[in-house]
Amino acid sequence: MERMFHYYFAYGANMNIESMKWRCPKAIPIGKARLTEYKLNFRRGVATVEPQRGEYVPGALWKITTSCIKSLDHFEGYPRLYGRYTIKGGKGLPKVQIYIMQPGYEESPPSSYYLETILQGYKDFDWGKKAQGNLCKIARKLMEVEHCVRTTTV
After folding, report:
1. Hey, what CATH topology would domain 5-153 get?
2. Which of 8, 44, 76, 86 sits 20 to 30 Å CA-CA off 96?
3. DSSP string, 51-87
4. Using an 8 Å Cβ cutoff, are 120 and 20 in contact?
């Protein structure tokens, strides 16, 4: 029987409660949380976070087991695609696990399905319309850039 718990900060598809129930059945949602001094971006069509002074990334805090970490490692493509890091938790929380994409991957927009999965996670954790709008704005910007690249290189 597992007794070791960890805290995990999710900012992409793993904010979605239904997805996490399937991926990590023992995960317990704690509530919404912010990752300060970072911004959200999409590389290879999936979410990542990047340092950015004065910004924050909306997310979800989970209490997870060691077996959840193994499942998340597989889902996140650890260690090739994403690195797993331990960061200091805020407001009296212990250390928190987070996945951040490894360097070298190009920006590219998310698929509609992936974006909807994240938007549902924003709703699941009560991130309001403003946060949802900001998420869509980031995705739209990348879609416009991708469209311009395709039309000028064909």
Report:
1. Hypothetical upf0131 protein ytfp (3.10.490)
2. 44
3. EEEEEEEEEEEEEEEHHHHHHHHHHHTTTTSEEEEEE
4. no
